[in-house]
Design goal:
This protein is of the alpha/beta class and 308 residues long. It has one domain: 3-Layer(aba) Sandwich (Rossmann fold), CATH 3.40.50. The protein contains twelve helices and five strands. It has helices at 2-26, 40-52, 65-68, 73-80, 95-108, 134-142, 146-152, 156-169, 198-201, 215-228, 247-264, 292-304, and strands at residues 59-63, 85-87, 113-118, 232-237, 270-273. β4, α11 (247-264) and β5 (270-273) form a beta-alpha-beta unit.
């Protein structure tokens, strides 16, 4: 009787299972990456690197969406040439997350150049970061196949839900969750004025009492680690749109950039202040994420300063 019950249960469940499989297969181009972390964009970026990343990176970028959305791959390639490059920028990454991911990538084979883009947000309580299991990231990148990664992380509801969302994320640069990566891992936003989210457009810079002093110690630690590995760190300060700037904020930014230089310059690294000129509002998709035109101009501007 038990055997009959089990057989009937399996037979009844097969059509449902088959339907799910066929549904997922029909949207295989937007099927989400294995759930290695709780961060959707990081999972997608790790899969991109696992599938297409070179054996050794000559240049790579890491950090939050300040790196993901504001670095133009075109401009990076114009500056560095046709070298192996990937942008690992990820939604919501805090400085501790950036340091952890860089440590994973550097442990495999140190790259000559690492670029990190931040603004005041990463140095405040407004961007605390996320839990990140570095060992799980390293194991996925170099120790397990993609099918095994899915089998070890069976989350059907997650995969189906993200698969639906990815249909928009992969096609609409006017969506703030746009996640279509170019060949260098960049994902520049292009939100038209009529679709700008008011809360994001008017989002104010973090106030002085929200700044976290210990964040600078994280920068120093990362700088020392990369120096010991013979890697050049290029730290880029990303501006806020001009409509949010005033004299007090400009003074805060100058003090912030000066502090970063005092930490990193003695280690042989470079800090580039992207706030050394005005950046008009029409180049932005929100408070501090450029649109596609803005990202290209910004990246060209900051990389040109390396030659000065």
């Amino acid at each position: 009787m038990v055997r009959t019950f089990l057989k009937q249960t399996v037979l009844l469940g097969l059509p449902v299972l088959l339907g799910i499989v066929l549904y997922a297969y029909s949207y295989r181009d937007t099927f989400p990456a294995p759930r290695i972390t709780s961060n959707i964009s990081l999972n997608e970026k790790l899969r991109l690197f696992k599938r297409t990343g070179p054996e050794r990176l000559s240049v790579y970028a890491a950090g939050s969406s300040m790196t993901l959305n504001n670095l133009s791959t075109q401009a990076v390639r114009e500056h560095f040439g046709p070298v192996p490059y990937l942008n690992f920028g990820t939604w919501g990454f805090g400085l501790d997350n950036t340091r952890s991911l860089v440590a994973v990538l550097q442990a495999r084979q140190p790259a000559p150049v690492v670029i990190v883009c931040t603004n005041l947000m990463e140095f405040s309580t407004e961007l605390p970061g996320m839990p990140l299991d570095s060992a799980a990231v390293a194991r996925y990148l170099w120790g397990e196949s993609e099918p095994v990664a899915y089998l070890r992380r069976p989350h059907p509801s997650y995969y189906l839900r993200q698969m639906e969302s990815n249909r928009i994320r992969a096609t609409d640069p006017g969506n703030y969750e746009y996640l279509r990566f170019d060949a260098g891992g960049g994902s520049t936003l292009d939100v038209p004025p009529e679709r700008r989210a008011k809360a994001r457009w008017q989002h104010p810079p973090p106030p002085p009492d929200a700044m976290v002093d210990s964040a600078y110690a994280t920068v120093a630690d990362l700088g020392r680690r990369l120096q010991a590995q013979g890697t050049k760190l290029i730290w880029v300060h990303v501006p806020f749109r001009e409509g949010l700037m005033d004299d007090a904020l400009r003074a805060r930014v100058r003090a912030h950039v000066d502090r970063l230089r005092a930490i990193l310059a003695p280690l042989g690294h470079t800090v580039v202040d992207g706030n050394d000129r005005p950046w008009p509002d029409e180049l932005f998709s929100d408070y501090s994420h450029f649109n596609a035109d803005g990202a290209l101009l910004f990246t060209r501007h900051v990389l040109a300063k390396l030659e000065q």
